[in-house]
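Input structure tokens:
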């Protein structure tokens, strides 16, 4: 019987770039004010030098009179952009959008309605334009056999060697609504029939805005076909072989990128691996804006390359025997951010077993990701950073499945006087001031802070949701703040260092009335006096 040796080697995609200088300039996330309006701004596309961005804008609110323009904006300083200029000579009559620019900057792949140079008729589709200086010329239309989009929505991207097109549309073979398909360029310049990216990627729901990274293997796209934070989230998947039909299980990029609204597109700069553009609508179905996003490459869930060697063969050609798959080891990966996402911070992560005994620890610079191999089903992760309230989190591995990234994004609150710090994990029995045992971990961190800063005093603020009797809510919020104080005093903190207030439902974080929103409003905060 043939024996196979499997060697697991991590794919080295991280460039270990420190983001601190960039973050001080622009923040971890910011809307590019120069690019956005009250209308939809979308379909961004970098030029190969990373100095210009082309994007589309809807210019009329009447959905029955859809008028769009392609514009471009230019970097005038580090991460600052000029007012956009309309590229009127290539505007089509219907939703023009640039999906790809060739590596030499001369060829633009644009979808929209243009005059087909092959027959002189106005047609919709994906066209190839040549650009020389400020002059534009349409030279061809991409012709895909049996192409027909059954949906009004379409988006696409191109591999960076211009050999493979990935397109979001509703085709005859759809698994639901819009799916992702691919077509490959043949030697004669024509294109193959569309084929699905497969069931790992496509769902019975919607898949939108594919963008293929510069390795031609990593694919970002938007979908509502899996569990999401909002109406649509950004996911990442990895091409497993050269068929373009086998992809790794998609992974949600999580709250570091995705919002409670609609997240549609995620594209990396060609010159800065930690600089992305994010297209999102902060409300569930609002107008889309383009955001500048600093996202450490090391935070991405990375696949591993598996070399399968036939030990009886004379061949040792590793490349011909390699495939990509995600690690199924028990591993926790950690990154720490400021609660407001406005800067990344240096931190220390510690791993404790279920009895609180020390297992491992490491220090990280701002933006770095730490990884720990875990041999236990349950561990505690404790994260500390100077001038921040430390966090401790319980992690259970027993239900872990292959392909899950186990990335723990830890948000730390700055210890600034006068700022309200939410104690998200301080919970109570319904309708009572009785603390649940799950609250103790976070309250112990507050206790540690007060012990480490004996000169500090705090005020505890109790809040309820906005439903129910106002007088009862006011009393309940006061009692819950007092219950937290009693816990801290019982552990040795002097009573005169802690004051309490109740605000009932008068200061909600959201006025939505669904259960998820109501839970957000039921909270205790503290202010350093």
């Amino acid at each position: 019987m043939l024996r196979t040796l499997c060697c697991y080697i991590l794919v080295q995609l991280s460039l270990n770039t420190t983001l601190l200088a960039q973050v001080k300039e622009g923040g971890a996330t910011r809307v590019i004010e120069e690019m956005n309006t009250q209308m939809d701004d979308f379909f961004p596309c970098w030029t190969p030098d990373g100095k210009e961005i082309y994007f589309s804008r809807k210019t009329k609110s009447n959905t029955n009179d859809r008028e769009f323009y392609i514009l471009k904006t230019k970097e005038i300083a580090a991460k600052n952009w000029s007012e956009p200029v309309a590229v009127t000579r290539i505007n089509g009559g219907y939703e023009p959008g640039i999906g790809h620019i060739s590596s030499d900057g001369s060829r633009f792949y644009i979808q929209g309605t243009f005059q087909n140079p092959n027959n002189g008729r106005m047609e919709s589709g994906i066209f190839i334009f040549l650009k020389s200086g400020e002059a534009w010329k349409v030279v061809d239309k991409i012709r895909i056999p049996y192409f027909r989009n059954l949906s009004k929505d379409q988006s696409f991207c191109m591999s960076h060697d211009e050999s493979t097109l990935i397109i979001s549309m509703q085709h005859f073979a759809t698994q639901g609504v819009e799916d992702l398909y691919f077509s490959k360029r043949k030697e004669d310049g024509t294109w193959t029939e569309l084929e699905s990216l497969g069931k790992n990627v496509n769902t019975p729901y919607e898949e939108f805005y594919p963008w293929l990274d510069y390795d031609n293997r990593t694919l970002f796209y938007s979908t509502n076909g899996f569990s999401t934070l909002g109406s649509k989230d950004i996911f990442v998947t990895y091409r497993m072989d050269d068929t373009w039909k086998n992809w790794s299980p998609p992974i949600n990029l999580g709250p570091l990128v995705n919002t409670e609204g609609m997240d549609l597109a995620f594209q990396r700069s060609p010159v800065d691996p930690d600089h992305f553009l994010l297209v999102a609508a902060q409300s569930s179905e609002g107008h889309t804006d383009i955001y500048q996003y600093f996202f450490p490459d090391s935070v991405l869930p990375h696949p591993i390359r598996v070399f399968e060697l036939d030990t009886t063969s004379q061949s040792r050609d590793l490349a011909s025997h390699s495939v990509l798959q995600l690690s199924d080891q028990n591993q926790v990966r950690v990154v720490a951010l400021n609660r407001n996402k406005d800067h990344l911070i240096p931190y220390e992560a510690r791993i404790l077993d279920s009895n609180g005994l020390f297992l491992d620890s490491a220090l990280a610079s701002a933006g770095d990701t730490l990884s720990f191999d875990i041999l236990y089903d349950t561990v505690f992760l404790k994260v500390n950073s100077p001038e921040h309230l430390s966090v401790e989190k319980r992690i259970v591995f027993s239900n872990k499945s292959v392909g899950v990234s186990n990335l723990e994004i830890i948000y730390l609150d700055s210890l600034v006087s006068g700022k309200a710090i939410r104690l998200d994990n301080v919970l109570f029995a319904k309708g009572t001031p009785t603390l649940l045992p799950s609250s103790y971990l976070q309250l112990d961190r507050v206790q540690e802070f007060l012990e480490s800063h004996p000169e500090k005093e705090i005020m505890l603020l109790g809040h309820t949701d906005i439903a129910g009797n106002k007088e009862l809510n006011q009393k309940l919020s006061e009692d819950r703040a007092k219950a937290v104080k009693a816990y801290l005093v019982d552990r040795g903190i002097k009573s005169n260092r802690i004051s309490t207030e109740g605000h009932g439902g008068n200061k909600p974080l959201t006025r939505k009335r669904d259960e998820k929103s109501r839970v957000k409003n039921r909270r205790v905060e503290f202010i350093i006096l």
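The CA atoms of residues 333 and 381 lie 10 Å apart. The first strand starts at residue 4 and ends at 10.
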